[in-house]
Specification:
The chain is an all-beta fold. The chain has no helices and 11 strands.
Length: about 120
């Protein structure tokens, strides 16, 4: 089992920045990738960014060039630096962990990000 906890959400004006953090505990050795997903009201959950255990990153088209996923030398926490935020970035942001099957089996409780115009 893996437990994930997100932090760092909040309210910011358009053009501002926030940094989210994803902390993990439990069987973290089994994790093959960490992904940040978001879900806006009335919309489906979408990939924001992911980072694999070997450091490969993937970004959603809508955040490329504005958001950066990273981690320190240790595997955790995994950070999501969000710059040039737009009102359309408003959503609940979730941290997910993929196991050996490369499917996201574990999720945090989410953290709200609100960007005002």
């Amino acid at each position: 089992q893996v437990q994930l906890v997100e932090s760092g959400g909040g309210w910011v004006q358009a053009g501002g920045s926030l940094r989210l953090a994803c902390a993990a505990s439990g069987s973290t050795f089994s994790i093959t990738a960490i992904g940040w997903y978001r879900q806006a009201s009335g919309k489906q959950r979408e990939l924001v960014a992911s980072i694999s255990s070997d450091g490969a990153t993937i970004y959603g088209n809508s955040v490329m060039g504005r958001f950066t996923i990273s981690r320190d030398n240790a595997k955790f926490p995994v950070y999501l630096q969000m710059n040039s935020l737009k009102p359309e970035d408003t959503a609940t942001y979730y941290c997910g962990a993929a196991g050996k099957t490369f499917t996201y089996d574990y999720w945090g409780q989410g953290t709200q990000v609100t960007v005002s115009s």
